[in-house]
Amino acid sequence: HLQFVESGGGLVQSGESLRLSCGASGFTFRGLTLGWFRQAPGKERDGISCQASTGDPTWYSESVKGRFTTSRNTAENTMFLQMTSLKPEDTGVYYCAPCPLDSTYNDWGQGTQVTVSS
Predict the structure, then answer these.
(1) What is the rounded distance in angstroms from the CA atom of residue 92 to the CA atom of residue 87?
(2) 59 vs 8: CA distance, rounded Å
(3) What is the DSSP string of 7-62?
(4) What is the pLDDT of residues 23-76, one digit of tens each?
């Protein structure tokens, strides 16, 4: 049972930046392929990045490629999502989880809300 804790969300204006953090307790990120997921209002949760345990390679969805960067500090058991040039369509609740997702995965954290105003 993996429990992640997401933080760092907030309300920003279009074009601004934000950095999200993903932490955990009781287990180590070492050796885990981890990703970020986003659930926009009224839509399903979609994957936006997936990073190998070594940090390379990292897959990004077309919607965030070139604007978002995933990184991790394994020693501190933390993963980050640096988001730049934010757009209103980036609004949603952001989650971290292992990737690719198993169809039975249901250990979602509380997520962190990101709201981008135009």
Answers:
(1) 11
(2) 22
(3) E--EEEETT--EEEEEEESSS--TT--EEEEEE-TTS-EEEEEEE-TTS--EEE-T
(4) 987 888 889 999 999 999 999 999 999 999 988 899 999 999 999 999 999 888
- Helices H, strands E: what count in the chain? 0, 10
Joined together, the tokens standing for residue 4 give 């992640």
Q: What is the pLDDT of residue 38?
A: 98
Residue 33: what residue type? T
2 has pLDDT over 80: no
CA 50 – CA 99 distance, rounded (Å): 6
Query: Of 43, 40, 32, whose CA–CA distance to 78 is shortest?
Result: 32
Burial of 90 (0-12, 13-18, 19+ CB in 10 A): buried
